[in-house]
Task: structure prediction
Amino acid sequence: MLTYKRSVINIKGIKDGLLITLGEGEWAEVETLLLQTVAEREAFLKGARVTLDVGNHILHAVELGALRDKLSEHNISLWAVLSNSPVTEQTAQVLGLATRLSTPRPERAIRSLDTNISGDQALFVHRTVRSGFKVSHKGHIVVLGDVNPGGEVLAGGSVVVWGKLKGTVHAGVDGDESAVVCALEMDPMQLRIAGFTRENVQRRGKPEPEMLWIKEGRLVAETWKAKK
Result:
C-alpha cells in the first residue's frame, strides 16, 4: 500500500512553494492517500504554501473546500489548484484559489471563464462568503448565503445576495452602469456599482430587502420588491 501511495502522491519544490501532484483513481481514495502522506511528513510540510495538481479529477466547492480545511489543520496553506477540468478550475476560482503558477494575482482581477454559452453569464454560489474569501466573475453573481465583513464579491454584472450583505461588493466592475445590487439585509463595508460608491447611510429601523442602482448620475436605493 505504501508503494502505491508513493506512485500516486508526488511532492516537489517550486518557486511558489511546494507542488503536490495527485494520480488517477476514486477521489475519496486519492484524498485519503494525500492526507496520510501529509500526516507522515507533517514535520516537512508544516507551514508549506502548496499548489495541488489534481489532474482530471472533477471537484466541486464542497469537496475542494473540505480538503483545504483539512490541510489547514496540518498548518498547510492551499493557495493554488491546477486541473484539466474546467469545472474544477471554476471551483478553485470561486474559493479564491489561483489556477496558474508564477503569475501575479491582481487583488481585484476578474477572471474570465471558458464557456460557449451565449447571453448573460451568472455564477451561483451556494455558501456564505466569509472573511478572507473573494468571489469574482465577469457576469452576474448570485450568493445564496451571507457575505460577511472581510468577504468580497466582484462582478462584471449585477450581484444578488440572498442573505446579509456586510462585506464588500463591486458590481459592474468594467463600467456597466446598468448593474444592480440586491440583498435581503444591506449593510456593506463597501459597495460600488461601476465608478459610483455608496455613501455611508445610518441604518434606521428593521432591515428590509434592498436594491441599489445608478440613476441620474448617483446611486439610489429602494426597498427590494417585485415590480408590476
User: Anything to note?
Assistant: The chain is about 20% helix and 30% strand. Helices lie at 2-8, 27-40, 42-45, 61-73, 86-94. The radius of gyration is 20 Å. The chain has a mean pLDDT of 84.
